[in-house]
Design a protein that fits this description.
The chain is an alpha+beta fold. It has one helix and six strands, in the order ββββββα. 28% of the residues lie in helices and 42% in strands.
Length: 86
C-alpha cells in the first residue's frame, strides 16, 4: 500500500483535513457519484467541529480532483489578467 498523506488544519474547535488514502472498501465519489474501487487512491476531505463532535467526510475521486484543480487554475489566471489591465 502507498503511504497516506494528510494535511490537517485546526483552529479553535474546527478541524479541516485533506488526506490521500487507499480505499479499504468500495466508495462513491461525492461529486460525480462514480465508484472508487477497493485499493484505489482517493482524496478524503474531513470537516469537523470538536465542540459538538460532528464530522462530515467527503470522498473525491482523482478525476474530479484534477477537474477542480484545473478550474481553480483557470480562475486564478483570469483574476491575475484582470488585475493587470485594471
Amino acid at each position: 500500500m502507498d503511504k497516506m498523506y494528510t494535511l490537517r488544519y485546526q483552529k479553535g474547535g474546527l478541524i479541516r483535513e485533506i488526506s490521500i488514502r487507499a480505499s479499504k472498501r468500495e466508495r462513491r465519489c461525492t461529486i460525480c457519484g462514480g465508484c472508487i474501487k477497493k485499493g484505489k487512491r482517493y482524496i478524503r476531505l474531513t470537516l469537523g467541529n470538536l465542540y459538538i463532535r460532528r464530522f462530515k467526510r467527503y470522498a473525491i475521486c482523482f478525476d474530479c480532483w484534477v477537474n477542480i484543480k484545473s478550474k481553480l487554475k483557470d480562475v486564478k489566471e483570469k483574476i491575475e489578467n484582470a488585475s493587470r489591465y485594471s
